[in-house]
């Protein structure tokens, strides 16, 4: 009976993975078509609103909405339903390992899944935001100079959308496409803040929205904000250099228990198996995970300085 259940779980996991592969291939094909027609698919305006009730329920949950925002901010071409499918396939694989009696492998997979996806997504998101901030200062100078030369604000934005590299060019192109499709300018400018969690971009959007209400010399305002952004980027770089030792120490200390557990699993699996077979084992695992998370948060708080 166990063999039959294991076989069914394995077959179902295989079907789900094949389905995901088909979905990704179709998504790539659509992205190519959108790029050929000049419509940038990186921003959410290119994504259709789903009407599936279960999907809408997942989006309304705080964790689901946070995942959607993180995927957008990281620039990962993955929709919520695709992420849920991947999670379901992984849980099926985990269930297969448990039913098959592969407790050590199941424990290793659980430990990896606790940290690896979130760390990877946070890393990609942070790199994209930093890259965006690094491009924004020069782009605002170019916009200000273009407006002094007689360009309108939207013509200056179109220039940035065509000339700037990703991700800045893609986001500016997305704003213009949304406005061309009939979205109010204020909503299009505010919507980009959801896709790029950048304080520097928030300053720019706030200044533009205020200028549209009360008037003023927008080119001069953009110049001032550009100077502020450039200085912030420089100071952030210096702080990152000065806190590199603390961050590396935190990564080494945080990964040490996982590395030791993996080595012991290879050398003496029975030694690690006690954590599963003994009633006290799961309690120790939970305590260790909580301690690791608290330690990582404390180290992150120490080496993170707000600017």
TrEMBL record:
It comes from Metallumcola ferriviriculae. InterPro entries: T2SS_GspF_dom (IPR018076), T2SS_GspF_sf (IPR042094). This is Type II secretion system F family protein. Residues 142-265 form the Type II secretion system protein GspF domain. Keywords: Cell membrane, Membrane, Transmembrane, Transmembrane helix. Pfam families: T2SSF (PF00482). The chain crosses the membrane at residues 6-24, 83-100, 106-124, 248-267, 279-299. Its main location: membrane.
